[in-house]
Design a protein that fits this description.
By secondary structure, the chain is mostly helical. It holds the Pfam family FANCI_HD1.
C-alpha cells in the first residue's frame, strides 16, 4: 500500500496516538524510509513527519524503539549524503537531538557504533550528522549498564571505550575538522581529551595546507576544556617541521640547480600568518591560553631548539600587542637572545665544551628569518619587531664609560653578547625598514628622537642604523624630510660625535634635496656664533663635511679620495655642468664662513686645520682659496726678515685673561696643515694632465703661493736650525710649573716649538729627494727637538711640569716612509744620504717610538692625528707597511749591534719594534679582523720573493718559530743579558699569532708542547714573564682540551714552594713547572685560581644545561632518553670536579699569604661547594646515585671539607707564609697582623663558605634518603664549630700569659707554637 504522509500528520495533529501507532505498524521499513527520503528532498513537511513518527513510536514499546532506531539511522545517512538543503538537514538534526535521551542504552550503543564505523570507512560526507553524535555520547554516558562482549560496562566506561576506538582508527582527512568541532560539544574527561588532541595533532601532517587554519581554530576552541599546552606545542611543532622541510628542500634544490618545493613558500607563510591571527584572537578571549604558551616557552629555554622557531617567535611578537603579555614577551625574548649569545661565546672559548655539547640553536637567525617572513602579509608581527629592535638597542647599546666617554667599537666588530644583541636589534629594524612601508616613518622618528634625547650616552649604534637606512632607501627618507629638519634644529645642542655621525649619515640626502641643504646651512651659520664651544665646533665640522662632499667641476679625486658616503639609489649627478657653478659658489660661500673660525678658540682652529687637508684631497678646485687662506694667516706669525731669529713669533699664539694663560693659536697645527696641503697640491700638479689654455692664469696664481710657501718653509728651516732655545726663552733655567702663569706660558711655547720642529722634519724629509745636506739639516732640527724634549722631561720628573707628553704631529704616512728609508731602503744612490740618518741612533729610536705611539692611538680610538688619519683604508695600508718594516728590523738586526750606542735607561730599537708589532696585531684583531690576512700580505713578500705566494696558514708557523727562537735566546742567556720587557713582549706576540692557529691543527699541538716545555724548564724569577707564559699556556690549552691536569701540577708546585700551613710537616720538594719559584708562587696562585674560576664557570654551565634539559623532558614526559647520552656530559662534569677538588686540596694545605690569594681561594671553594650541591639536586630529581658520584662525594669528604676547616683556622689566626726561618722587625709583624685582621673583618668569604658546606651536607642527607645510599658515611659533620676556636692555641696563649706575669724578664720570648705563624709571615 502507498503510505500517505497527510494521514500520518493528520493523525498526529488529532492526538489519535493509538490510530497513529496502528497505522505506522502497518508501514514497512522500506516504505517508511522512502517516505522520509522523498519528504526531505522536497524540503517541506519533514519536520511534521518526524514528529509524527516519534509520537507514534513510543520508547516503551519494542516496535516503537525499533522504528525510532530506523528513523535515526536513515536520517543520519540521509544528512551525510549531501542531497538535502542545509536548513532541512539542520532541522532534522535538531529534532533528533530532542528525542535522543529517550532512546534505550542498546539503541544508543548501536547508533554510536554506526558513527564509529562510518568514520572508520571515511563515509561521513559533509559531516552534518556529526552534530547529533555529541548528544548520543552524552546520553550514552548517562546509562547505567551496557553489554560489551561477554560482560557489561557502565555508560561512562562504554563512552570512553568508544572514544578510544575512534581515536585509534584511521580518519579521513576531510572529516578531521568536523570531528574536532564535534568533540567540542562532548563532555570529555582529561584522559579522553588527551586522546582526542593527540589524534587531531597527528592528523596535521595528512591534511591539506589550506585546511590547517580552520582546524587550528577548532582546536583552540577545544582548548577551553584543557590540554592548552599540548595543543599549542603541537601547532608550533607542525609549523617548525614545515619550515625545516622547506629549508632542506631549498638547499637540495640549490645543490641540484633545480627547484624542489612540495609546498610553495608564499602559501606556507600565509597559512602561518592566519594561524597566528587565530591564536592571538583565542588568547584575547582566554588569557589562560596565553599564560600557558609563555609558560611552555619559558620552560624550554634551557633547550630552545625544541619550541623556538621562526613561527613561535612571530607568534610571541603578535602576542606582545596584548597589553597584559607585552612585558613578559619582551623580557623572555631579551633573555633568550642574551642566553643564546652567551652560550655561543662559552662554547667558542672552550674546546672542552665543544666536544661535549652540540652548538646551540641560533635565536638571532630565527628572529631575522621572522623579519624576512613578515613580508608575506604579517602586519600583526611588524609592530612587535619594531618594538623588539628598539628594546635590544636601548638595553644593550654602548654605555658611557668613565667621565662619560666610551670606547668606539664599530658595530660590525661586535663580540660580546651585549654588543651582538644590540647589533641584532639594528638588523631587525633595518630589515623591517626595507620591507614594510607602514613602519618606516615610525622607525625613522624613533631613531632621530634617540639621537636628540640620549646626549649623556653613546648613540653610535643609532647613527650606524640611520646611515644604513639612508644608504638603502634615501628617496623614502626624503618623504620624511620634515623629521630630519626638526633634528637639524637641535644640532648645536648635541655632542660633537653625534653631530659628526648624523651629518655623515644624511649626506646623500643633501645632494638630492635643496631644502635639506639650505636648512642645514642656516643651522650651521647660527651654530657658528653659538655661546657653547661644542656648538661652534659642530658648525666647523658640518661645513667641512659639506666641502668634502660637494665637489666643484674639475676636481680630481684619487681612488682613495672617492666619497666614503655613497648610495646606489641616489640618482643625482652632482658633478654635471649645470650645477658645477652652483657648487663652486656654494663651496666658496662656506669657505668665507670658515675664515671667521680663524679668530676663535684653539680647539675650533685645530678642527679647521685638521679638516682642510681632507677637503683639498676631495675638492681639488678649492686649492687656491684654501692655500691663500692658510698663507695669509701664517704670515701673522712668520718673521719676514731673513736675518732675524727666531723665524716664528710665539707670543701672539697665547692670550691672557687675568692670571690665566691659554693657547690662542695652535701654530704647529697651522703649519702642519699648510705643509700637508702644499705637499698634496705639489703631488697633484705632478700627476695632473695638461691643462687647458684658459686655466693658465689660475696656475700662475697657484705657482705664486706655492713659491712663496716653499721660500718661507726653507727660510724657516734654516733659521730654526740656527735658533737656540734661549731665543724662545726656553733654556734649562726656564720655569715649566703649571701652577704659575709663566710656567703655563713656557709649557705652551715648548709644545708649539716641538710641533714646529716635527712639521719641519717631515717637510724637509719629503722634499729633500734624498739630498745629504738636507738630511744633515733635518738631524740638526731633530737635535733641537730632542734637547727641548729632555728639558721638559727633566722638569716633569721633578714635578714642576706636566708629565703628559703632547701627541706627535708627524703623520702616519710619513712615519711609514721614514721607517722604510731607515731600515729597508737598499737603493745604491740613496745609500750615502740615508747613512746620515742611520748614523743617529736617537733619531731611529725616536722614529720607531712615534710609530708605536701612533699604533697605540689607532688601537684606542680607531684613528690617528694628521692627514688621512680618519681614512680607514689608507690608515690600514700604512699599518701594513709599518708592520713589514718592524718585522724585518726585529728579525734581521741582532740586539748586540745596537746595544753599543744605546743610552742608559732608554729602550732599544728592537724592543720598540717588538712593542709596535704586538700593538699592530692587537689592533688588527680588534678593529680589522676580516683584514688579518691583508696585514700579513707585505710580510709574505720580503721573505722569499722568488717562491710562489703562500697564504697566512702556511706562513704563520714560520713566523711563530722566529719569535720562539727569539724567546729561547732571551731565556738561554744569563741574567745580565735577560730583558724582561722584551721577553714579555715576545710572549704577547706569540699569544697574538697563536690565536690564529686552527684548533686541532698540528701547528697548535706543536705550540702547546713547546709552551709546556718552556714553562716546565724556565727558572727565571720574573713575575711578569711567569704570568705571561702561563696565560699563553692556558689560552692555548683552551683551544685543545681542559687544562685541569696542569692546574693540579701547578698547585702541587705552589704548595711545595710556599710551604704547609702545618709547620711540623716537611714537604717533599716537587717541581713540575720550574717557572714556579718562591718569588712567583703567590702571583701564580692568583692566575691558577682565575683558571679554576673559569673551569667552574664551564661546569656550572653544563650542570645548568642538564637541569634545564631534565625539566623539559619531565614536562614532556620524555624521561626515556638514552643513558649513554646523558652520561657523556655528567661523566665529564664529575671528572672535572674531581680533579679540581684534588688541586684545591693542595692549595688548602698551602701557607698562602693573607689578602687576595686567601680570599680568592675561599670564594672559589664556596663556588665549588655550590656546584657540588647543584649536582646533588640534579641527581635528587633522578633519584639515583651513580658510582662516580659516590666517588666524588667520598673525595670531597676526605680531601676537601677537613682541609677547609683547617684553612679557615689558619686564615683567622692571621698566619702568613709558613716554614720560613728569616726574621723581620717587630713593626713589620704588627703591621702585617693589623692588615690581616682588617681583611678578616671586611671579608664575607668565610661565612659564605661555611654556609655552602652546610648546604652541601644538607642535600647529601636528602639524596641519601631518596636513593637509599648512605653518602654521609664519607662526611664528618662539624657540629661544634671547633674551627672557630683552636683549643691547643688557646691553651698555649693562656700559658704564655701566666709566664709573662710570673717572669717579666721573659716577655720578649714567646712559645714556639705562637712564634711559628709569625715566621711564616716574614716570608711574604
Amino acid at each position: 500500500m502507498d503510505v500517505d504522509i497527510e494521514k500520518i500528520t493528520s493523525l498526529s495533529e488529532r492526538d489519535s496516538t493509538g490510530e497513529l501507532q496502528k497505522y505506522l505498524s502497518s508501514v514497512t521499513a522500506e516504505q517508511l524510509t522512502t517516505l522520509i527520503t522523498n519528504t526531505a528532498l522536497k524540503g517541506k513537511d519533514i519536520g511534521a513527519l518526524i514528529k509524527a513518527i516519534f509520537k507514534g513510536s513510543p520508547p516503551s514499546v519494542a516496535d516503537g524503539v525499533s522504528r525510532r532506531a530506523l528513523l535515526y539511522q536513515h536520517c543520519i545517512s540521509l544528512c551525510d549524503s549531501g542531497d538535502l538543503q542545509t536548513e532541512v538537514a539542520s532541522d532534522i538534526m535538531g529534532l533528533l537531538m530532542l528525542e535522543t535521551h529517550s532512546l534505550p542504552g542498546p539503541s544508543l550503543a548501536q547508533l554510536a557504533s554506526l558513527y564509529v564505523d562510518s568514520i572508520k570507512a571515511g563515509m561521513m560526507g559533509n559531516g552534518k550528522s556529526l552534530e547529533l553524535f555529541p548528544t548520543i555520547l552524552t546520553a550514552l554516558a548517562g546509562t547505567e549498564a551496557l553489554a560489551y562482549g561477554k560482560g557489561e560496562l557502565s555508560g561512562e566506561e562504554y563512552k570512553k571505550q568508544l572514544i578510544n576506538t575512534l581515536c585509534s582508527s584511521r580518519w579521513d582527512p576531510q572529516c578531521v575538522i568536523h570531528l574536532t568541532t564535534m568533540f567540542r560539544d562532548v563532555p570529555l574527561s582529561p584522559e579522553e581529551l588527551q586522546f582526542v588532541v593527540e589524534k587531531v595533532l597527528r592528523m596535521f601532517q595528512k591534511m591539506e595546507l589550506q585546511e590547517i587554519p580552520p582546524l587550528i581554530y577548532q582546536l583552540l576552541l577545544l582548548s577551553s576544556k584543557g590540554c592548552k599546552k599540548q595543543i599549542l606545542e603541537g601547532i608550533v611543532q607542525y609549523f617548525k617541521h614545515q619550515d625545516e622541510q622547506q629549508k632542506s628542500e631549498q638547499m637540495e634544490g640549490e645543490n641540484l640547480d633545480v627547484e624542489v618545493q612540495s609546498i610553495p613558500q608564499d602559501q606556507l607563510r600565509h597559512v602561518e600568518g592566519t594561524a597566528i591571527l587565530h591564536i592571538v584572537f583565542a588568547v584575547r578571549l582566554d588569557y589562560e591560553l596565553g599564560k600557558e604558551f609563555l609558560k611552555t616557552i619559558k620552560a624550554a629555554l634551557g633547550e630552545p631548539s625544541r619550541v623556538l622557531c621562526s613561527f613561535s617567535i612571530a607568534l610571541l611578537l603578535s602576542l606582545s600587542r596584548i597589553q597584559r603579555l607585552e612585558e613578559q614577551v619582551f623580557d623572555f625574548l631579551k633573555g633568550a637572545i642574551t642566553k643564546c649569545f652567551k652560550d655561543e661565546q662559552m662554547q667558542q672559548g672552550s674546546k672542552f665544551l665543544q666536544d661535549l655539547v652540540a652548538p646551540p640553536c641560533s635565536v638571532s637567525s630565527m628572529i631575522l628569518e621572522t623579519v624576512k617572513n613578515s613580508v608575506f602579509g604579517w602586519d600583526h608581527v611588524t609592530q612587535g619587531l619594531v618594538q623588539l629592535g628598539f628594546i635590544l638597542m636601548d638595553s644593550f647599546g654602548p654605555k658611557p664609560g668613565p667621565f662619560g666617554k666610551t670606547a668606539e667599537v664599530p658595530s660590525s666588530l661586535a663580540r660580546s653578547p651585549t654588543q651582538l644583541a644590540c647589533q641584532l636589534g639594528g638588523q631587525v629594524l633595518l630589515e623591517g625598514f626595507k620591507m614594510h612601508e607602514q613602519i618606516r616613518g615610525e622607525i625613522l622618528e624613533q631613531v632621530l628622537n634617540r639621537l636628540v634625547t640620549k646626549t649623556a650616552s653613546p648613540v653610535t649604534h643609532f647613527i650606524d642604523l640611520l646611515s644604513s637606512m639612508v644608504t638603502s632607501a634615501p628617496m623614502i627618507l626624503l618623504e620624511s624630510s620634515s623629521k630630519v629638519l626638526e633634528t637639524f634644529d637641535q644640532l648645536s645642542y648635541l655632542p660633537l660625535s653625534t653631530v659628526e655621525g648624523l651629518l655623515k649619515a644624511v649626506q646623500p640626502l643633501l645632494k638630492v634635496s635643496m631644502a635639506l641643504k639650505d636648512s642645514l646651512i642656516i643651522v650651521l651659520r647660527k651654530a657658528m656664533f653659538s655661546s657653547q664651544l661644542d656648538g661652534r665646533k659642530s658648525a666647523v665640522m658640518g661645513f667641512l663635511l659639506l666641502l668634502k662632499n660637494f665637489r666643484v667641476l674639475g676636481s680630481i679625486a684619487s681612488s682613495q679620495a672617492s666619497q666614503a658616503i655613497t648610495s646606489s639609489q641616489v640618482q643625482a649627478d652632482v658633478h654635471s655642468r649645470y650645477n658645477a657653478a652652483a657648487n663652486e659658489a656654494f663651496c666658496l660661500e662656506i669657505l668665507s664662513s670658515l675664515r671667521r673660525c680663524l679668530s676663535q678658540q684653539a680647539d675650533v682652529r685645530i678642527m679647521l686645520y685638521e679638516g682642510f687637508h681632507d677637503v683639498l684631497r676631495r675638492n681639488s678646485q678649492l686649492a687656491s682659496s684654501i692655500m691663500q687662506t692658510l698663507l695669509s694667516h701664517l704670515r701673522r706669525y712668520y718673521e719676514p726678515e731673513q736675518d732675524l731669529l727666531p723665524p716664528m713669533k710665539l707670543e701672539p699664539c697665547i692670550s691672557a685673561q687675568g692670571d690665566q694663560v691659554f693657547l690662542q693659536e695652535p701654530l704647529a697645527h697651522l703649519l702642519s696643515c699648510t705643509v700637508h696641503c702644499l705637499l698634496w697640491h705639489q703631488g697633484l700638479q705632478a700627476r695632473k694632465p695638461l691643462i687647458e689654455d684658459e686655466e693658465e692664469d689660475d696656475n700662475d696664481d697657484e705657482g705664486g703661493f706655492q713659491a712663496e710657501l716653499q721660500t718661507m718653509l726653507e727660510s724657516m728651516t734654516r733659521r730654526m736650525v740656527k735658533s737656540e732655545l734661549e731665543d724662545f726663552e726656553l733654556d734649562k733655567s726656564a720655569e715649566f710649573s703649571m701652577a704659575s702663569s709663566v710656567g703655563v706660558r713656557n709649557s705652551i711655547f715648548a709644545t708649539l716649538l716641538m710641533g714646529l720642529y716635527e712639521v719641519l722634519i717631515e717637510y724637509n724629509f719629503t722634499t729633500a729627494n734624498y739630498n745629504k745636506n738636507c738630511f744633515e739639516e733635518l738631524l740638526q732640527l731633530f737635535s733641537r727637538y730632542q734637547k727641548l724634549c729632555e728639558i721638559v722631561k727633566e722638569k716633569a720628573g721633578k714635578g714642576r711640569a706636566s708629565s703628559k707628553a703632547p701627541r706627535s704631529l708627524l703623520s702616519l704616512g710619513f712615519i711609514s716612509s721614514l721607517l722604510y728609508a731607515l731600515f729597508r731602503d737598499s737603493t745604491q744612490s740613496r745609500e750615502e744620504s740615508l747613512s746620515v740618518l742611520r748614523g743617529s741612533a736617537d733619531f731611529m729610536r725616536h722614529a720607531v717610538g712615534v710609530a708605536v705611539n701612533k699604533i697605540q692611538q689607532l688601537e684606542e680610538t680607531g684613528h690617528t692625528d694628521g692627514p688621512d688619519g680618519h681614512h680607514a683604508d689608507k690608515t690600514f695600508h700604512h699599518l701594513c707597511d709599518i708592520t713589514s718594516v718592524l718585522m724585518w728590523r726585529y728579525t734581521n738586526v741582532p740586539p748586540a749591534v745596537e746595544d753599543a750606542g744605546k743610552k742608559a735607561g732608554s729602550r732599544s730599537v728592537s724592543v720598540l719594534c717588538l712593542e709596535g708589532l704586538l700593538r699592530v696585531f692587537t689592533t688588527v684583531q680588534q678593529r680589522h679582523p676580516p683584514d688579518w690576512q691583508s696585514c700579513w700580505a707585505p710580510l709574505m713578500l720580503w721573505r722569499r720573493r722568488g717562491e710562489p705566494g703562500e697564504g697566512l696558514t702556511e706562513k704563520l708557523p714560520f713566523y711563530l718559530r722566529q719569535f720562539q727562537r727569539s724567546l729561547l735566546t732571551q731565556l738561554s742567556g744569563g741574567e745580565e743579558d735577560f730583558s724582561s720587557r722584551e721577553a714579555q713582549l715576545l710572549v704577547g706576540v706569540l699569544a697574538a699569532l697563536a690565536s690564529r692557529l686552527e684548533p686541532g691543527s698540528p701547528q697548535l699541538d706543536q705550540m702547546i708542547t713547546w709552551t709546556l716545555k718552556i714553562c716546565k724548564e724556565t727558572s727565571f724569577e720574573d713575575v711578569a714573564l711567569t704570568k705571561g707564559l702561563l696565560s699563553l699556556l692556558f689560552s692555548l690549552l683552551a683551544l685543545q682540551r681542559s687544562p685541569v691536569t696542569e692546574l693540579w701540577e701547578l698547585c702541587q708546585d705552589i704548595h711545595s714552594q710556599l710551604g704547609d700551613i702545618d709547620q711540623d710537616v716537611e714537604l717533599e720538594k716537587q717541581s713540575h713547572f720550574n717557572i714556579v719559584c718562591m718569588k712567583t708562587a703567590a702571583p701564580t696562585t692568583l692566575l691558577v685560581l682565575a683558571q679554576v674560576g673559569r673551569l667552574l664557570d664551564e661546569v656550572d654551565w653544563l650542570i645548568a644545561l642538564k637541569k634545564s634539559q631534565a625539566a623539559v623532558d619531565k614536562s614532556n614526559a620524555d624521561l626515556s632518553q638514552a643513558p649513554g647520552q646523558q652520561d657523556c656530559v655528567l661523566k665529564a662534569v664529575t671528572l672535572q670536579l674531581g680533579t679540581m677538588l684534588t688541586a684545591l686540596h693542595e692549595l688548602l694545605q698551602t701557607a698562602l699569604p693573607p689578602g687576595v690569594c686567601s680570599d680568592t681561594l675561599l670564594r672559589d671553594l664556596s663556588r665549588t661547594y655550590g656546584l657540588l650541591t647543584a649536582l646533588l639536586k640534579y641527581y635528587i630529581q633522578l633519584c639515583q646515585v651513580p658510582s662516580r658520584l659516590e666517588k666524588l662525594v667520598k673525595l670531597s669528604g676526605s680531601h676537601l671539607t677537613p682541609q677547609c676547616y683547617s684553612f679557615i683556622t689558619y686564615v683567622q689566626s692571621g698566619e702568613g707564609n709558613g716554614g720560613g726561618e728569616k726574621k723581620k722587625k717587630k713593626k713589620e709583624e704588627d703591621a702585617m697582623m693589623a692588615a690581616s685582621v682588617k681583611v678578616l673583618r671586611q671579608t664575607r668569604a668565610i661565612p659564605n663558605l661555611i654556609f655552602s658546606i652546610e648546604q652541601y651536607e644538607k642535600f647529601l642527607i636528602l639524596l641519601s634518603k631518596k636513593s637509599k645510599v648512605n653518602l654521609m658515611q664519607y662526611m664528618k659533620l662539624s657540629t661544634s664549630r671547633d674551627f672557630r676556636i683552636n683549643a691547643a692555641a688557646l691553651d698555649t696563649m693562656l700559658q704564655e700569659q701566666q709566664e709573662a706575669d710570673s717572669q717579666q724578664t721573659m716577655v720578649t720570648q714567646s712559645p714556639e707554637v705562637s712564634q711559628q705563624p709569625r715566621k711564616k709571615k716574614r716570608k711574604v
